[in-house]
Specification:
The chain has 139 residues and is of the alpha+beta class. The protein is built from five helices and five strands; from the N terminus they run αααβαβαβββ.
Length: 139
Amino acid sequence: MKNQLTEHFSLDELIRSNTATNRGICNMPYQAAIDNLQNLCQRVLEPLRQWAGVPVKISSGYRCRELNKAVGGVKNSQHIKGEAADIVFPDIATGRRWFDWIRKHCPFDQLIWEHAGGKTWIHVSCCRNEDKNRRQVIQ
């Protein structure tokens, strides 16, 4: 299995989960989910990284159903298909710049400014089939 999905993103970082590790959950994706993760990296994450010029940290990428349930994800989460990632950023101003840049320059299905438990992150998803990308923005 190819671990490097793009120049700056690996499969390992997009499946890493402390919750999965702590609970003994195998979070290994199936091939279609890996293909979806690579698409997400190629179309959104890598372009953002290249533009920003600094590492882009992913707090949650692919989640198997068991992991998605364990973290309280919605039942039909795009994380389960490998179509979504949650991006963390060093400060709110940087997060806003990244959010606006993705909105203006990347194909995406959903772009959500999310916050819970005192934390804020960007949720972004992208479908391989361009016609399915709704370009839904929620702030």
